[in-house]
Amino acid sequence: MSKRARFFAISFFLGSLLWCTGLFGVEKRLALVLSISGIAYVLSAWVLFEDLKGWEWITLLILPVLFTLGSGLFGNLLPTAIPSMFGLNFQIETSLFLGGIVRFLFTVLYVFGVYAVLLTENIFSVASIRTIQLFRAARSVSFILALVVALFFYAVALSLKLPFYVVGMVVGFISLLLSFESLWSIDLKTEHLDDVYLLSIVVGWLMTLYGFVVSFWPVAPFMGGLLLTACFYALLGVLEQRLINKTVVVNYLEFLISASWRVGVCWG
Questions:
Q1: 88 pairs with which residues across the strands?
Q2: Measured between alpha carbons, how far is residue 66 from residues 52, 129, 222 in Å?
């Protein structure tokens, strides 16, 4: 079996497991999603085992695990029934059927998403050894998927009506992990790990502050998640440019001061 076939088999298997979580009660789904995320780590490590070395056991496997965990948690926010649409009211059977279609389409998108994640991580593992032409495309796909994962976690954190400090810590921790993977993938070398550590902590800290602020705003969880995702996109884009030395240190410091000041103004 080719590696791409194994990627698709793993994606389909994980998607089937996520679909089956809807058959259990809400109180059991968290444990099931965490278990499936652990399975995603094991299967991803197995299919990429030949090329994994050193820090790649962490950096290459962050996105598959978080994508699975975020999708499983966000899937619980999807409606089980759609009673009305476009001004039309449906009967119970029809509304349940439409809700099932939405969940099915979400699962299909998850399967293709995991497949894309595994393809990009495989390209990263090969690119760390030799130069390949698909590296830039893989970075773009990985960046988009990181934003999708961030949106899932941000929306879930806001929807649970948790205390503001818990929301901020969740937002900051997830942002730190995703930014670490994204910043590391710029050149796939370990000599810049100190800079990657520092910039990831900066992203995590600032996103924690943004999470504090947004948790007080009267916005819907999904809209709040979109707002936080936009902040994460801006932060990660600027700091990626800093890491590849396209932004001078002075502008970098000005950006951090400006971002912290804006958080303080919103907080006040």
A1: 85
A2: 18, 25, 18
